[in-house]
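Figure 2 data, in text form.
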Amino acid sequence: LYPQLGIVSLSPSRRFVIADIPGLVPGASQGKGLGIQFLKHLSRTTILLHLVEILPVDGSCPAENFLAIENELAAFSEELFNKPRWLVFNKID
């Protein structure tokens, strides 16, 4: 699993980079999985877009999934935890 980067061009003079981070596992902030690498990528962002599946295929609780990520952000860095973020719900139909 690797972060995917893409450039969004709004006009010839306006563009930004978007990074798709595949996900974090509990314990990522302590080095579990690729968590530290992913969190370092997130540290270089201006805003976080948190995409939450409302009906996860694995039957997990969306609120608990969201809080797990929030906890990892807070445990890794106060600066990262305090970044602006948007919460987006997916698969609500």
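Caption note: The longest helix spans residues 62-76.
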